[in-house]
Amino acid sequence: MTDCKSLIKELANKHGRERASLLPILQGVVERNNYLSDTCMTDIAKELDLSAAQVYGTATFYSFLDTQPRGEYVIRVCKTITCDMHGKKTIIQTLEDMLKIKVGETTPNKKFTLLETNCLGWCHEGPAMLINDTPYSGLTTEKVHDIISEYINKPSL
Length: 157
Description:
This protein is elongated. It has a four-stranded mixed beta sheet with strand order 2-1-3-4, with helices on one face. With 157 residues, the chain is α+β, with helices and mostly antiparallel strands. It has helices at 4-15, 22-33, 38-48, 52-61, 81-85, 88-99, 141-153; strands spanning 73-78, 112-117, 129-131, 134-136. The chain folds into two domains: 4-61, no CATH class; 73-153, Glutaredoxin, CATH 3.40.30.10. It is built from seven helices and four strands, in the order H-H-H-H-E-H-H-E-E-E-H. Strand 3 and strand 4 (134-136) form a beta hairpin.
């Protein structure tokens, strides 16, 4: 994990120190540190001269701005009714069985976190999931096995 203060200064120099810079700075911290700690959010508030409540409120509003440590690979399964109608429950069960965790949990080796999220924009090809920034759609049990097996066999970053 990168030192928050130096990272935030770097991001503020790049994006600016106005209120409009908050979201890109939050995204930059998550990209580098994998989540937003309370300390980082406080440091951002100081750097941008905002209240800690403003920073926390923004960070917790967006589901992709994690405020808890996550695994190296964050799997977000679409929880819309469309994906549900196309077999999302089976996909979740397959992921839970393969990773031996439940939705909302992270594997003991910190490689995977499994979450449900609002629409990913792939409803026409549901069920869908996102692993970090890579979307997967038209999921079946077999397809999930193949995808997750590839990630399991990848060396850690």
